[in-house]
Inverse folding.
């Protein structure tokens, strides 16, 4: 099957085009670095058509890195993938490179087109985001650009779908050509280098395309024993105007070439600067109130999404109970399954499904908010605003992007952190990742904080997030202290223009992400719930017990032994399901709520269904409908997060002696190792040694923090406040005396 | 009170410096000094080629990050990168107001 590679600068619209061509739902966002690994999918001109091709979406890179050199080892994994595609042999060869160029950044992004033309690969150019060029002063004549570049140019807008059909038709025609014709390189119409350089290019490697000839020249020039032709008069005279050497000359020639192309194909020689973005940035990136605005915005946006998510969750929960528990109970009764099997299936599958489905509205709201932040262009700005704070652990500001991804799920966060150029930065960022509270943990915190901290659940959630970030920073600082340091003076970050988020696309992508999340959660939760349900009804002699939560069941006996370890955290023997949930949480954090749901959904109807406790299915439906109507009417209770008293796990209150023990439990859940998937992701990224180190460190930190919290919180208030005051004062005084507080400027003299 | 606020602020974010006064100014890039070849190539690709005009848009807290405009795009760069650029101060084009 033929292969089409989408390459280009970061944030130029490659993944949006990939989604449009293949029908996939890859993550998109208005910031550089959303795509961290190459992904591929099949695209057919029409459903069932024989003409199908593989589309590969490569991560973005600003320039073609130098192949065959030592610098390739230092290049990020994204750049290495692109080089591999450029130099691939037969089986992985790419048949057509589609260079995606952001039409509003034409003069900068065409620089890579010059390099690709010089590399002699089969190429076409797609001008994306043409919908952003509604300004009449800047229009691109694609025919003129096509003639100037010497390869085909097509304008598209993936946001509106304009031009995508034309591109499909073009790809169909071009890829249906004969093999030999397809491999033909484009006519070279790239940069014009001075004669002495052209002469040298032919002398170093006459048979290679210009890009590789130039790279060869650069390598030779950097060599201590440079060949004699670098000292010839024509060359030395030419280089007098370029004090930084050959690289500067090459860049200047390429830039001149791009400027000539842009002049030919546009009415105005200058691209319009986004004045709106400048105006907004004057506020959001202000050196004084940029950071307070960031904190305020983050809190209000997440507070709103949590409030709406909880409201939707409460409204839909009776529906999931009806579908997952009542209907299943009625079905198993109708089929005539034996009673033990019926109980295990109804409890395991029913409660597992209800738990997994209850995440759906909450996740939908959180994903929509995150998508809005990503698409409007603020995500890249947050990296700039937080750069100072990231510097405290020695990481560049854009590491915050991978950490924010980790807030959704640690696995993509680890993948994004793996793209760092520096090995030490990579190690530090990846080892910090397990402490970022992922969405699965968020679901646990929401249920617990809603139940135990009803009036102040937002603050409880905020405290947990801050604690997770704080522990991540301490971990980073410790790693820096033991030698994982990097001095990275070359940190550059492109700030995209602001744009309005596309609501329809946001809803669609959030829907797909939420469905994927619930499906993955259900795949973990349901089998574990079935197994646990079975073990919870079987005693140590192998007999089936009809009683739930029996003290003599297999899981109870096993968990009670482990509970001793957690007694310093305030967990008593009767709270053995909580310990069991922690053990199961190692598989995936979604399983924690599933396990708790199995043991703490106390009302009989919530576990075995209304139908199972004597009612008919019709009665069950009317009862659930009544619950939905009641929840919908109770909108005021959810307008402020935590205002509700409804909980999916009503039996939890008996498990903890006080709410402080519940908080200690949440702290442990927050800090102990996320899941097996993250372990494998870390091992793949930085090796098994670090993966096991991460497991060990997270358990130690989780245990110490939870136990410390339990013991500190029972101390008198004044003692805790005095301690906090002493620590804060100490830190501030140290910083004050480190900088010169008595300078004339500060004293206003 | 103002002195106290400034002390507290700069304790957290570090001191500002005189470059804040240059916000809104335009510079002509003469060349790049002291960069390794990979960084140089990266900067050239981003548009930091000789003779290009750079506008300083903002200096972030503690002068840690600078935001500049090169051509039509905004780029945030570290203070240390600024030191690698040979610049000629052209003029102050406008006041950034919030």
């Amino acid at each position: 099957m033929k292969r089409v590679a989408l390459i280009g600068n970061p944030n130029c619209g490659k993944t949006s085009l990939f989604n449009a061509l293949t029908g996939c739902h890859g993550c998109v966002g208005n910031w550089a670095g959303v795509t961290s690994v190459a992904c591929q999918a099949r695209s057919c001109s029409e459903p069932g058509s024989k003409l199908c091709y593989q589309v590969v979406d490569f991560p973005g890179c600003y320039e073609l890195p130098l192949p065959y050199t030592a610098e390739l080892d230092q290049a990020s994994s994204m750049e290495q993938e692109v080089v591999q595609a450029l130099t691939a042999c037969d089986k992985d060869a790419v048949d057509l490179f589609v260079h995606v160029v952001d039409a509003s950044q034409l003069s900068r992004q065409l620089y890579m087109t010059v390099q690709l033309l010089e590399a002699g690969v089969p190429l076409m150019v797609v001008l994306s985001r043409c919908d952003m060029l509604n300004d009449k002063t800047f229009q691109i004549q694609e025919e003129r650009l096509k003639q100037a570049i010497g390869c085909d140019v097509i304008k598209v807008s993936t946001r509106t779908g304009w031009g995508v059909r034309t591109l499909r038709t073009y790809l169909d025609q071009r890829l249906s050509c004969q093999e030999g014709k397809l491999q033909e390189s484009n006519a070279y119409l790239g940069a014009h280098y001075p004669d002495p350089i052209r002469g040298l290019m032919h002398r170093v490697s006459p048979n290679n395309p210009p890009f590789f000839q130039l790279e060869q020249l650069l390598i030779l020039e950097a060599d201590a024993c440079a060949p004699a032709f670098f000292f010839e008069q024509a060359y030395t005279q030419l280089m007098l105007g370029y004090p930084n050497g050959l690289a500067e000359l090459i860049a200047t020639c390429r830039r001149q070439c791009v400027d000539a192309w842009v002049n030919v194909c546009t009415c105005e020689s200058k691209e319009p600067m986004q004045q709106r973005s400048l105006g907004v940035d004057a506020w959001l990136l202000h050196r004084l109130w940029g950071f307070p605005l960031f904190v305020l915005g983050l809190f209000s946006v997440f507070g709103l999404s949590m409030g709406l998510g909880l409201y939707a969750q409460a409204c839909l929960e009776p529906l999931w109970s009806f579908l997952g528990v009542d209907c299943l109970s009625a079905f198993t009764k109708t089929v005539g399954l034996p009673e033990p099997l019926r109980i295990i299936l109804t409890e395991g599958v029913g409660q597992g499904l209800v738990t997994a489905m209850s995440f759906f509205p909450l996740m939908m709201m959180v994903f929509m908010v995150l998508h809005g932040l990503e698409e409007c262009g603020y995500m890249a700005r947050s990296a700039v605003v937080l750069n100072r704070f990231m510097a405290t652990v020695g990481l560049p500001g854009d590491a915050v992007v991978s950490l924010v991804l980790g807030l959704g799920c640690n696995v993509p966060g680890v993948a994004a952190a793996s793209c760092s150029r520096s090995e030490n930065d990579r190690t530090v960022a990846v080892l910090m990742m397990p402490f970022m509270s992922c969405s699965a943990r968020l679901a646990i915190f929401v249920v617990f904080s809603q139940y135990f901290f009803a009036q102040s659940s937002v603050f409880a959630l905020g405290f947990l997030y801050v604690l997770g970030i704080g522990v991540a920073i301490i971990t980073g600082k410790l790693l820096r202290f033991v030698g994982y340091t990097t001095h990275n003076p070359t940190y550059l970050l492109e700030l995209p223009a602001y744009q309005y988020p596309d609501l329809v696309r946001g809803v669609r992508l959030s829907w797909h992400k939420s469905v994927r999340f619930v499906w993955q959660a259900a795949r973990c939760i349901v089998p574990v719930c079935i197994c646990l349900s079975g073990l919870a009804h079987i005693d140590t002699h192998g007999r089936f017990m009809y009683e739930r939560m029996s003290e003599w069941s297999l899981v109870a006996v096993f968990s009670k032994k482990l509970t001793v370890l957690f007694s310093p955290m305030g967990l008593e023997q009767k709270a053995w399901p909580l310990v069991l949930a922690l053990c199961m949480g190692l598989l995936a954090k979604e399983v924690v709520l599933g396990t708790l749901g199995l043991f703490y959904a106390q009302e009989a109807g919530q576990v075995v269904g209304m139908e199972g406790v004597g009612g008919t299915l019709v009665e069950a439906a009317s009862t659930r409908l009544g619950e939905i109507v009641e929840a919908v009417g109770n909108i005021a209770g959810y307008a402020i997060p935590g205002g509700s008293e409804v909980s999916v796990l009503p039996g939890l209150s008996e498990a903890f002696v006080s709410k402080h023990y519940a908080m200690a439990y949440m702290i442990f859940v927050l800090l102990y190792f996320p899941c097996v998937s993250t372990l494998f992701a870390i091992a793949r990224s930085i090796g098994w040694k670090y993966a096991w180190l991460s497991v060990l460190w997270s358990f130690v930190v989780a245990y110490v923090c939870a136990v410390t919290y339990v013991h500190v919180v029972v101390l008198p208030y004044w003692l805790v406040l005095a301690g906090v005051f002493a620590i804060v004062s100490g830190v501030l005084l140290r910083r004050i005396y480190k900088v010169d507080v008595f300078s004339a400027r500060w004293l206003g003299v | 009170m103002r002195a106290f606020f400034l002390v507290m602020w700069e304790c957290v974010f570090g001191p500002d410096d005189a470059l804040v006064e240059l916000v809104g100014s335009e510079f002509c890039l003469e060349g790049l000094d002291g960069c390794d070849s990979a960084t140089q190539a990266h900067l050239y690709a981003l548009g930091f080629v000789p003779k290009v005009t750079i506008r300083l848009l903002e200096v972030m807290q503690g002068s840690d990050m600078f935001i500049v405009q090169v051509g039509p795009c905004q780029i945030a760069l570290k203070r240390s990168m600024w030191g690698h650029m040979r610049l000629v101060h052209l003029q102050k084009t406008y006041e950034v107001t919030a």
In short: The CA atoms of residues 338 and 386 of chain A lie 60 Å apart.
